[in-house]
Write a structure and sequence with these properties.
Distance between the termini: 45 Å
Number of strands: 10
Strand content: 5-15%
Number of helices: 18
Largest sheet: 8 strands, mixed
Shape: globular
Radius of gyration: 22 Å
Helix content: 40-55%
Order of helices and strands: HHEHEHHHHEHEHEEEHEHEHEHHHHHH
Structural class: alpha/beta
């Protein structure tokens, strides 16, 4: 086993990385002197980490690849976060040296003293994602003009929430009207929409992108798995699946694969996207069960069993192959129930410690507002457990109607 790991590490260092890059460039028809342009759209935790992983691996080949990330400008870093960021910087000698060398350290000193306001796009250039301030990344090329970021991109990585994907890609489509060839799009978004007309159906993020841009589905892929962003960047062992048409998924799986981040490929795009969205709903419930039962392992295991049973049922409707739940797909559900923002929401809701206005200071404002609407609407503070079970029953009925 040790020998095989060493072999993999050797293959992915130096010439091995350049060979993988050259192979993908060749498939995309890139000429010498024309860099492969990879753009991340959206700079949340996973979107930023994904771009940083590519930068760490391939950024050394500057003449062959250009990696950049887009985020909206103008998001200010509040004073408390700026002070904490300063503490993180000074606790990491490598980060401190890097910022001093780049002549960027002084601005963090000034922000801590209250003499300067930092902005999310500004600190991202230095490798700090606002969604996970304790995990310094590598410096990134940040673009705040969407047209500049995407107009000539060869590969676009969708790091946006599913709720924002359609709107942003409709804008992007305006900048691609003169393109001769369609780009490749890798979507990291997890969530689905429901449509009732002309017939009940679900709409996944890759379908949103296809409808917004006209990029053919064979060029749009989904990547998902048990991915806690900060842990992956800290090189904790993880895996994922990239799903989509044969044309691109195998070359991209090879390109994205790293010794600590193993990427498999799979043709079943819709099932993986649906489950990627559904597990976030289950995670809210997991947080509620944990809080309401005082972290009872038995109760949590029963809840997990109900979740997996429902996932098997839905997978059978989608693909008639429930075994597709194996590997990263089921692991993604498990890790999200264990740890993540949605599980935290569920815990706070069950404890009555979450309010609508918290969305102004905590990432995920939309989620908090939705939860508070439900909480207020049902007015079941003393019977929250029974409300939650009713909610799951209704969700199950809606999914059966939509998918059936």
């Amino acid at each position: 086993m040790v020998g095989s790991i060493k072999a993999v590490n050797h293959h992915n260092n130096g010439c091995g990385l350049e060979e993988k890059l050259d192979e993908l460039r060749s498939l995309l028809g890139k000429a010498d002197g024309d860099p492969l342009r990879i753009v991340g759209v959206g700079a949340g935790a996973w979107g930023s980490v994904f771009a940083a992983l590519l930068q760490d691996s391939y950024g050394q080949f500057r003449e062959k690849v250009q990696i950049r990330i887009w985020r909206r400008p103008g998001r200010a870093v509040d004073r408390a976060t700026a002070e904490h960021l300063f503490e993180v910087i000074n606790s990491r000698e490598d980060v401190l040296r890097r910022l001093i060398w780049r002549c960027a350290y002084l601005k963090y000193v000034e922000a801590r003293l209250g003499d300067r306001t930092l902005f999310a796009d500004e600190i991202l250039k230095d490798g700090f994602c606002l969604n996970m301030i304790d995990t310094p990344l590598c410096p990134l090329k940040v673009v705040t003009n969407l047209q500049e970021a995407v107009w000539d991109a060869d590969i676009v990585v969708n790091g946006l929430p599913s709720t924002e994907t359609r709107e942003v890609f409709e804008e992007i489509s305006q900048y691609w009207k003169e393109r001769i060839t369609a780009p490749i799009i890798i979507s990291l978004a997890k969530g689905i929409e429901a449509a009732l007309k002309p017939v009940p159906r679900i709409i996944t993020p890759t379908q949103m992108i296809n409808r917004a841009t006209g990029v053919p589905m064979e060029n749009i892929l989904y990547l998902g798995g048990p991915n806690i962003a900060s842990e992956i960047y800290n090189k904790e062992y993880a895996n994922a699946r990239i799903c989509g048409a044969d044309k691109w998924r195998k070359p991209l799986a090879k390109f994205l694969r790293q010794p600590h981040f193993i990427v498999w490929d799979n043709s079943d795009l819709v099932t993986h996207e649906v489950m990627g969205g559904l597990k976030n709903v289950y995670a809210i419930g997991a947080g509620m069960v944990a809080a309401l039962t005082n972290e009872s392992a038995t109760s949590k295991s029963v809840y997990f069993a109900h979740c997996t049973s429902e996932m098997i049922f839905i997978t059978h409707l989608l693909a008639e192959e429930p075994e597709k739940l194996a590997g990263p797909l089921l692991a993604d559900t498990y890790v999200t129930l264990l740890k993540g923002r949605n599980a935290w929401y569920g815990q706070m809701l069950a404890k009555g410690e979450i309010s609508r206005d918290m969305g102004d200071s905590i990432s995920g404002k939309g989620m908090i507002q939705v939860l508070m609407f439900i909480y207020k609407h049902f007015n079941l503070r003393d019977n929250l457990k029974w409300w939650f079970y009713l909610w799951l029953y209704q969700l199950n009925a809606q999914l059966r109607m939509t998918l059936g």
